[in-house]
Amino acid sequence: MPRPQVVIVGSGFGGLFAARELESAPVDVTVVSRSVSHLFQPLLYQVATGILSPGEIAPATRDILRKQANATVLQAEVTSINLAGRVVVAQRLGKVSALRYDHLIVAAGAGQSYFGNDRFATFAPGMKTIDDALELRARIFGSLEMAELSESEDERRSLLTFVVVGAGPTGVEMAGQIAELTRHTLVRSFRRIDTRTARILLLDAADVVLPPFGPKLSAAARTELERIGVEVKLGAMVTDVDAAGLDLKFADGSTERILATCKVWAAGVQASPLGKLLAAQTGAELDRAGRIAVLPDLTLPGHPEVSVVGDMISLDKLPGVAQVALQGGKYAARRIRGELAGTPVTEPFRYFDKGSMAVISRFGAVAKVGNLQIHGLLAWGAWLFVHILYLVGFKNRVSTLLHWLITFVGGSRSERVTTQQQLVGRLAVKQLGEEFEPTIGGTLNPDRIQP
After folding, report:
1. What fold does the segment set 5-34+76-112+270-341 form as a domain?
2. What pLDDT, in 10s, does the model give residues 96-125?
3. Handedness of CA 328, 330, 336, 338 (dihedral sign)
4. pTM, whole model, 2 decimals?
């Protein structure tokens, strides 16, 4: 009798930990993801600001699962899911694969949301993938290099203005690291500009930074940001973004134009479009962020063989954080194991909140664990410990610790290489259009490539 087939869509926390939970189960597991790696997304901003290399926060999924004999990894993007036929269709570089399943776990995550203003993405990249982080690295360091070349004071001022939109953990951490970069790391690296004169702005339409952390830690975070030179503008809604800068509208109706070459978008998320596809077949509701309503056991209505986990789900107002995905992936896998063993899991999914943390500067962070709220050096130490704990692989933990030692104690950053392809790649691919067909050997449309 053939073994049950489990297909897992996505190699993030939900997908990876679901696969590992099924290691000794009598099933064959196929992990299909458009990325070849398991991305530790909370540290993407450190790739963007030259602290870590991509490999340290995105180890290869194949290497992680290489000793798990019942697991197969496929790099491809899922384009359709047929719930009635129990088939997942995935495609990569013209190669189409149809994967039959007995159990399906969808953990495709979420992307950046521009709240209906997708044109903003051209000028203010988000930070959800390694490509995003490398492009932002090229934009951040490239702005400084162009300022060194510039003969115009006005142009220099624009090039030395960095704007981060979104005062959640990602935005706060990014703004803090750009401040550290310009105020400390690069002070002696340039001759024609003083990086300490760089202007770093953190914007948000909300009236506090880090709203989920509570008033005490929000105030502490803002104080630390301002201490290291970040200008915090709250109640500021972005109404337009272009190459030269962005326009703001405040709660009192006043407006402001900020001239800035380098903009980072860290506000809002949009669930994977697979949520919409699943909703159309099940009648499940979608919220404004594209998250699909699931049953208390993380399954879809009428389809107990399909679980959805992580950033894609709408259930009990669960936050879109790594722990929700990790715990959801494990729970979904345990349901499969229980069904196969004849001991079905009957209790609903319950999320255990292990707290929230955000690092702001060297030796400065905020942390909330239950009723415990701490900030400063103690919170920074806790942040280091927790993030090292959840990195996958001993080698990655050691190399990350060494890079942190170089950065936070030595004041240097070893990952500062940028290329022109990193800077223009995303926009160049978009310019080629959806009909452009790249292959592993080149392209099926050579006439569209200028010699």
Report:
1. FAD/NAD(P)-binding domain (3.50.50)
2. 999 999 999 999 999 999 999 999 999 999
3. negative
4. 0.92
